Amino acid sequence: KLIQGQASETEYRIVRADGNIVWIRDSARVEPTANGSQLIYGVISNITRRKQLEEQLYQSQKMEAIGRLAGGIAHDFNNLLTVITGFGELILQNRLNPDDPTHQDVEQIVKAGHRAAALTRQLLAYSRKQVLHPCIVNLNAIVEHMSKMLMRLLGEDINFVTKFHPDLGTVKI
Questions:
Q1: Is the pLDDT of residue 133 over 70?
Q2: With the C-alpha atoms ordered 153, 156, 158, 159, is the resulting torsion angle positive or negative?
Q3: Three-state DSSP class for 46?
Q4: How many Cβ atoms are within 10 Å of 117's Cβ, its own excluded?
Q5: How would DSSP label each residue in 108-146?
């Protein structure tokens, strides 16, 4: 471009002697002088910081897109969970005797649906950049609840053992 009399701008990277990479912007233009020769004006700038900020912006935009995607998936998943837990609760209330052996299974389905709905709410909160409200939970109770479901899933030929610490306390999640 300079040979044709046009301004030229180029961005490139160089590796310094210490191994660090530096982004450079090289700008130049040609001007004719009164005696017919040409004079080249040029500026070389270190644009490393600008490139770092551009990369941060790009990463931020990617995270925002991931958040929107997670929000969409969480919303659709939450709709499915509403159907699952709704029918499970309907079965428990109207169609299943509490003495029926499958009553506990349906209760586990409903509880798992509620836990999954809580996870989707967290995803939705992330996608909307809402502040999460952590709650205090008893880990022993969660493990006990999950172990009942796991024992039914694993079958009779697998021995599933849980040991609970009586003074475990609670955690905020």
A1: no
A2: positive
A3: strand
A4: 18
A5: HHHHHHHHHHHHHHHHHHHHTTPPP---EEEHHHHHHHH
